[in-house]
Amino acid sequence: MTTELTVLAWGCILALVHVFAAGNAKTKQYGAKWNMGPRDGELPPPNPLVGRLMRAQANFFETFPLLVAAVLIVAVAGLSTRWTAIGAIVWLVARVIYLPLYAAGIPGIRSVAFLVSLVGLLMVLWPALF
């Protein structure tokens, strides 16, 4: 299996981390009864940590499909190179760093981590474009 596909598998694990981090924080705020219930009623606004984790999760799920597509294109077309592997790793490391930065409310460095993840994504996609 290529490095890019291994990173994709770890990206799936990171997706679960996002889901459970946001879900756990929401359950701490709204209670286990809310978590196990139908969640039909109106809720008070999320506290800052819950809001940040929800936004980080949304951001991850907005960009993760792009990495999935890029990795699959490279894998199926046989375009995997040292640079696409490095790009995939850069993406994963930046996304791992992004979550705690967002949760902690650190804006500038968080944005840098996001941009670095985009560079990694473009490194994976590059051979398919040219």
Explain the layout of strands and helices:
Blueprint: H1 3-30, H2 32-36, H3 48-77, H4 82-104, H5 107-129
Low-confidence stretches: none
Total helical segments: 5
Give the CATH level 1 class. Answer: Mainly Alpha
Number of strands: 0
Q: Can you tell me the CATH topology?
A: Four Helix Bundle (Hemerythrin (Met), subunit A)
Radius of gyration: 17 Å
Largest sheet: none
CATH architecture: Up-down Bundle
CATH H-tier superfamily: Membrane associated eicosanoid/glutathione metabolism-like domain
Characterize the structure shown.
The protein is an all-alpha fold and 130 residues long. The chain has a single domain, classed as Membrane associated eicosanoid/glutathione metabolism-like domain (Four Helix Bundle (Hemerythrin (Met), subunit A)). Helices cover 84% and strands 0% of the residues. The protein is built from 5 helices and no strands. It has helices at residues 3-30, 32-36, 48-77, 82-104, 107-129.
Features:
single chain, 84% helix, 130 residues, mainly alpha, 0% strand, Four Helix Bundle (Hemerythrin (Met), subunit A), elongated
Q: What's the quick description here?
A:
With 130 residues, this protein is mainly alpha-helical.
